[in-house]
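Quick one: structure tokens for this chain, please?
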Amino acid sequence: MRKQIFYLVVLLPILGANAPAQQKPDPTQVTAIRAGKLIDVDAGRVQTNQMILVRGGKIEAIGENLSVPAGAAVIDLSKMTVLPGLIDCHTHLADLGDAEPLLVLQRTSAETAYAAIPNARVTLLGGFTTVRDVGVYRAFNDVAMRDAIARGYIIGPRMFVAGAYITISEGAGAMTGLAWDIPLPLDLRYGEANSPWEVRQ
């Protein structure tokens, strides 16, 4: 039988810490989680029959004999294994993964942004509660995704984003393979820079 795994931080509000406008968890709200097994990454072992107390969106205590505060919401995961949320330090969630220039040019920036929404959900449900997103073809689609997650419009991990990566013309991340007389929209060439002065600009 397949072992059931539950990612602890999915229970907590997934807020983008670097978003301009974010909701704050209620500091008085307490959740008690009963974990059948708990992966203790600090000790490098599996703990059994653990209670996890979460107050105001932050883990307050973990132990075997913790008492449940009055009025706390109780989540019973006594038949599941709980582990901390994972972090992926190299993602491109707001892109679609097709590097073919023609395919990228067949979609508007808005179409690309909407089509990339499932990437955020799949990543979160895969256990990754924080990602470092290192750039997208359509500059700032990653910023928009980060902010949409932080405001609760879509489901996804906490995102730390590049906004627009910097590359030389014809370099990695540049839209290449087009004829010289085809102009690209600004968001598809925003990060191109070919000198120290252009990088500073």
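The radius of gyration is 21 Å.
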